[in-house]
Amino acid sequence: xxxxxxxxxxxxxxxxxxxxxxxxxxxxxxxxxxxxxxxxxxxxxxxxxxxxxxxxxxxxxxxxxxxxxxxxxxxxxxxxxxxxxxxxxxxxxxxxxxxxxxxxxxxxxxxxxxxxxxxxxxxxxxxxxxxxxxxxxxxxxxxxxxxxxxxxxxxxxxxxxxxxxxxxxxxxxxxxxxxxxxxxxxxxxxxxxxxxxxxxxxxxxxxxxxxxxxxxxxxxxxxxxxxxxxxxxxxxxxxxxxxxxxxxxxxxxxxxxxxxxxxxxxxxxxxxxxxxxxxxxxxxxxxxxxxxxxxxxxxxxxxxxxxxxxxxxxxxxxxxxxxxxxxxxxxxxxxxxxxxxxxxxxxxxxxxxxxxxxxxxxxxxxxxxxxxxxxxxxxxxxxxxxxxxxxxxxxxxxxxxxxxxxxxxxxxxxxxxxxxxxxxxxxxxxxxxxxxxxxxxxxxxxxxxxxxxxxxxxxxxxxxxxxxxxxxxxxxxxxxxxxxxxxxxxxxxxxxxxxxxxxxxxxxxxxxxxxxxxxxxxxxxxxxxxxxxxxxxxxxxxxxxxxxxxxxxxxxxxxxxxxxxxxxxxxxxxxxxxxxxxxxxxxxxxxxxxxxxxxxxxxxxxxxxxxxxxxxxxxxxx
Length: 622
Description:
The protein has 622 residues and is of the alpha+beta class. Helices cover 53% and strands 11% of the residues.
């Protein structure tokens, strides 16, 4: 695969174990997870809102001592590699490379044979193609002859060289095949060019042409600072004014915000993020010092956007143009914040201004003063609806209609009642009339949630656990008995008990094959370092076992020898195997004494136990 930079690649089977160990030791899981989740110190650990399922209470825990994470809501857990694999959808070697780059660790580089090229994942190939395209477009912009017109346009928009460089802005020439030829010279396969969205197949003939032509190009990055897509703006009044990459295996506009990869640290410091609608709006904010900002990519804000934002900030300020279109865009977005329990305010700019023009005319101080006067989402909806419908009897009913769903989305009944009170005081409408509408909307939402939860197996049900973060949910928590899970937990946290586990053949009494296999794995590791939970998680196969290990390790329990022996004794005494052995001995004695009545009863009991055990196994595998 000669199209990859410098013709080299890192592959999992060419990364020595000692390098992986070095990266794991260098990486701080709290530091890495903090790039995605807003963590707060809680005792020895850190907690935050789980990035893997929707919730309003912090059930996601990170242990710096054990270098693992675990969510008590959705039972997801693992080490720092597993976090990146699960969160970003990357492969293991890609996770290794991300961490190596972050912590300045050099990885071996090898020239690729044909066999090696075939091992590279499609995702990695597309990211490499995007990177080359970004470099091509940026070179065009900086070239004296090719980029002269585009650079003049950027100067007209008051874009400083530092912003152009920081965001790696580029230019797509007025050519049907400039990028295509460039990538072909790099030996990029045509099918991958098409899959990246950078070229489009011709309808009337064979071949392909460039998607972006004669446009300013904005590379779009994910949170790992990898180029996943592009946006392009024309230099004149041509339509469409803006053009974005299509959805690809690495690009989804509903999950990305332009510029957020450079905004995370400032968002975390200020606990606030500004959301704007366009590329130049975002660049203008950064240029004037408002670096805690991101921009939507030609779509309204989604629940996925908000879920991502909650990892960096506690408050969102939506910055919209001061025209009718801007107001309508605001109304489409604000309800999602209420539903997701996030503090949000709406900032409308004066009519005729967008963030870019406002900043250029009035500057940072005026922008911050306007942000201080921003409205809460409910107040904004109410004021907008009042302007639209007026205060006639019919108008008041329309205002309530506009407010009922956002109000029904508020789970905190005290807050909901407070807003209802504010509305009837302002509108002079009976509280009962407002509450009846809101309660009906809430009932409909609950009905929809119930239908969502009762979907057939195979459907993802992300919201089921959001209000019950510490309940035992998911199959991981139901695997094995409580005592079996306790024994695995003490084997992990109190290795001094391992000789007793071996001596008493404790694992032979386990009913859960999954837990038994984990116990045997722990016993097989003679080196104490190998038994460290972050290393153990790397060894086991499958998410289920990793989640179990993380769940049983994250809880801090004060084990000692006396407590461990008590659990072992209780477990063996109540073990079905122990009872089965005793029953077998009784059957043999009855046969020897030729006691047919007793023998029949004992055999019947043995059969009942076998049926019961089989039923339990079937329940566990559902």
